[in-house]
């Protein structure tokens, strides 16, 4: 049973922490709650005591027998320390190593993984000093569960709302990326393609490559040998990944097909152009007429070509949709003969292209799974786990 030590600091989102306790207990975890002085202004310790089934800890020096578990014992007891909501003040204290109350002292004493779910007014979140503290905490090994954007209790709109309890719970309880792809060769495509019109112009799309690069990193961490075929992006290649850099859809096709026969799994995360100019002019096109026409021709579907090989690897596609997400994703799964497809919305306020976060609806022939909105790094870890699970199922039947 996982021991979760939940630190609640003083923000309006403290009421959401009550729901967190309920969700953790539903998952079979034991929860102990520590509250700061100001958290108790927002919600009563009694609520957490009732929900957790344990006494709530509020003071650093407390001789009360019921609460007598010292900060050191509490820190030792925890498998995970989660601070939710984490106010700007609590984050600052943790980043500087101050220990003037029970929660900040526990943070210093904790040797287990630490997660923080910040919650604050959007201006406070964007303040340089807050962002510096967040960067420092990340550098110290703390996992930050990013706040979400939306209407705030103060009446403003922006980034700073604590992530939803279900998101926090899923992220915290996600299995660590075990070596689930050990010994496998995984081929991943990422980023956009560029289809030239002339020597200086091209047609491209909004893909940043972040999802594909996060997948490459997660696959390496899961023990795979990874080849990453990447369109033009401004991202550093993850360590231990063989990167093949390409520009056009045709080049990506060649690079992927050169590796597809020998890989065990292909994840097509690239946003490949569907059409490419029929001719790329050798010289810069000059402006004369008031209107002009570009004739485009369909590119080769790389994903379908990989899945259509005589003995194809386990093939995973992506579907970025602005509408009818499930219908289009299921259609691609079947028409391209894929093993799995990960679909996401694009053109919405949150997630999609060039965003740090995303949510996925993953489909395979006999089922589906929702991966809620989270950082692409964590999302990639979860998708890799799911790919490994379905790969193993396919190869044992
Ligand atoms: O059909 P659609 O382009 O929406 O399918 C998206 C999926 O197909 C992605 O996995 C993408 O990498 C792949 N694709 C491809 N070659 C193309 C177009 C898309 O591999 N020419």
Fold blueprint:
Elements: E1 3-8, H1 14-26, E2 30-35, H2 39-42, H3 45-52, H4 71-77, E3 80-86, H5 88-96, H6 102-109, E4 114-118, H7 122-126, H8 128-139, E5 143-144, E6 148-151, E7 157-161, H9 165-173, E8 185-190, E9 195-196, E10 202-203, H10 210-221, E11 225-230, E12 241-245, H11 249-260, E13 265-268, E14 275-277, E15 296-298, H12 302-307, E16 314-321, H13 325-335, E17 340-345, E18 357-364, E19 367-375, H14 376-396
Parallel strand pairs: 1-2, 1-3, 3-4, 4-5, 8-11, 8-13, 11-12, 13-16, 16-17
Antiparallel strand pairs: 6-7, 9-10, 14-15, 17-18, 18-19
Helix pairs in contact: 1-3, 1-9, 4-6, 5-8, 10-14
The structure holds cytidine-5'-monophosphate.
Cytidine-5'-monophosphate binds next to helix 12 and strand 16.
Please provide a written account of the structure.
This protein has 397 residues and is of the alpha/beta class. The chain has two domains: 170 residues, Flavin prenyltransferase-like (Rossmann fold, 3-Layer(aba) Sandwich), CATH 3.40.50.1950; 212 residues, 3-Layer(aba) Sandwich (Rossmann fold). Helices cover 35% and strands 24% of the residues. The chain is built from 14 helices and 19 strands. The strands form five sheets. It has an eight-stranded mixed sheet with strand order 12-11-8-13-16-17-18-19, with helices on both faces. It has a five-stranded parallel sheet with strand order 2-1-3-4-5, with helices on both faces. A hairpin with a 5-residue loop joins strand 9 and strand 10. Helix 1 runs parallel beside helix 3 and helix 1 packs across helix 9. The chain starts with a strand and ends with a helix. The mean pLDDT is 92. The site of cytidine-5'-monophosphate has 14 residues, from helix 12 and strand 16.
């Amino acid at each position: 049973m996982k021991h979760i030590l939940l630190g609640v600091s003083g923000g309006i989102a403290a009421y959401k922490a009550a729901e967190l306790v309920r969700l953790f207990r539903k998952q079979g975890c034991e929860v102990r709650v520590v509250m700061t002085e100001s958290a108790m202004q927002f919600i009563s310790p009694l609520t957490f005591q009732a929900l957790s089934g344990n006494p709530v800890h509020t003071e650093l020096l407390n001789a009360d027998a019921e609460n007598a578990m010292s900060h050191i014992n509490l820190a030792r007891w925890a498998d995970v320390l989660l601070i939710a909501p984490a106010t700007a003040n609590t984050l600052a204290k943790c980043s500087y190593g101050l220990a003037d109350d029970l929660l900040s002292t526990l943070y210093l004493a904790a040797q287990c993984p630490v997660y923080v779910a910040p919650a604050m007014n959007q201006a406070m979140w964007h303040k340089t000093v807050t962002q510096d503290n967040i960067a420092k905490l990340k550098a110290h090994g703390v996992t930050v569960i990013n706040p979400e954007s939306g209407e705030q209790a103060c009446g403003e709109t922006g980034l700073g709302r604590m992530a939803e309890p279900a998101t926090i719970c899923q992220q915290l309880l996600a299995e660590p990326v075990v070596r689930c792809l050990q010994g496998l060769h995984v081929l991943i495509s990422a980023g956009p393609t560029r289809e030239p019109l002339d020597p200086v112009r091209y047609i491209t799309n909004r893909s940043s490559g972040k999802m594909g690069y996060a997948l490459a990193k997660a696959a390496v961490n899961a023990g795979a040998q990874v080849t990453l075929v990447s369109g033009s992006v401004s991202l550093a290649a993850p360590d231990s990944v063989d990167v093949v850099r390409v520009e056009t859809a045709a080049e990506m096709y060649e690079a992927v097909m050169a590796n597809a026969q020998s890989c065990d799994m292909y994840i097509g995360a690239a946003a490949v152009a569907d059409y490419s100019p029929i001719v790329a002019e050798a010289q810069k096109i000059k402006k004369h007429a008031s209107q002009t026409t570009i004739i485009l021709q369909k590119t080769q579907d790389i994903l379908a070509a990989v899945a259509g090989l005589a003995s194809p690897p386990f093939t995973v596609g992506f579907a970025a949709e602005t509408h009818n997400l499930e219908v289009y994703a299921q259609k691609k799964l079947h028409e391209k003969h894929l093993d799995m497809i990960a679909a996401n919305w694009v053109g919405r306020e949150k997630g999609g292209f060039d965003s740090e976060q995303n949510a996925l609806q993953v489909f395979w022939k006999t089922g589906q799974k929702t991966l809620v909105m989270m950082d692409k790094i964590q999302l990639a870890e979860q998708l890799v786990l799911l790919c490994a699970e379905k790969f193993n199922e396919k190869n044992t039947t």
